[in-house]
Amino acid sequence: MAAHMDSPEVRRYNRIRRWLGISDFAVGFVFLIVLLVTGWSASLRDLAYKLGAQGFSLSLLIYLVLLLAISKALGIGLEYYGFRLERRFQLSHQKVGSWLWDEVKGFLVGAILGGVVVELVYFTIRQWPQHWWLLAWVLFMGLFVLLAQLAPVVLFPIFYKFEPLEDEDLRRRLVVLSERAGTRVRGVYRWKLSEKSKKANAALTGLGHTRRIILADTLLDNYTPDEIEAILAHELGHHVHRHILKSIGVQAGITLLGFWAANWALHYAVDHHMFEQLSDFANLPLLALISVVLSFLLMPALNAYSRFNERQADRYAFESTASIEPFISSMNKLADQNLAERAPAKWVEWLFHSHPSISRRLAAAEAWERKHAVHPQV
Ligand SMILES: [Zn+2]
Q: What's the rounded mean pLDDT across residues 239-266?
């Protein structure tokens, strides 16, 4: 892989991004530990009860908002640094005001979704202390599926503008690809990413009626129709292989494990007199800690699973397009445009990357071509 050495600039950018991610995780982790060990969580709970006039549900919501606000205050410096980093490396020209507005919206969306989840969780704990974790899991997964379906039409538009793709040539290409796949995606949308970032991106999103491919304008405006077709074919590969459904299945398994562990930890904490009862919501940081630790431990496995899916979608793109060249040139463009590391260290890819490195994807494309190429006429 020495042929694709990354420039010092690319390596520096990616190293800083990694450190930002790790620092953000560390700040959140330490915050939760401190809350539990110092008893500040109990003080926050008492404050929330005072503000919430002793009502359980309202006080729980207030407690959550206080918790989220403090954690935002602790993390905003790192987030601002991340925003400046994108500008420093010419990857974004978003203004501070626009970034701040996104932060506000993100906080509100997080508070609303988090509010629904914690109210459901503590409702089940109070109603069915024996089997709450099973019930909470069922409700959580119901919410998760609903959100996966609503995200493209409700969540994403809060942050980005979308419009149906107008390009007739591209639409026709997609129809041909879809017919060959024997399936249909409901729509292709132009995703106005350029207001926030110069990076290119594309994705398959939604469930059922909201299932759609979104293509960033940063991609549509800079790539040839053949290259966009190769990327469409990759996204269609995710659809054909039912990757969203499978990922929800994986999520269901992990969440079940999480709720089981949460139940165990809450009982342990009550038995050891850290809390008086299961439904004392001062134990919320303990639940959050379980979810954080579990995601951390499972990250390499989940990323490996995601890379497996990406390879499958790539293979689908090789098989369903006339030539491998547009795929190769689109990968090269993506790497340059996004300052992606073409050949990151093995452990970095193994731990952090949801996609195989560009050099691996190119190698797979070239290997596929060698194996399947129709020999050119002399
Ligand atoms: Zn993909």
A: 95
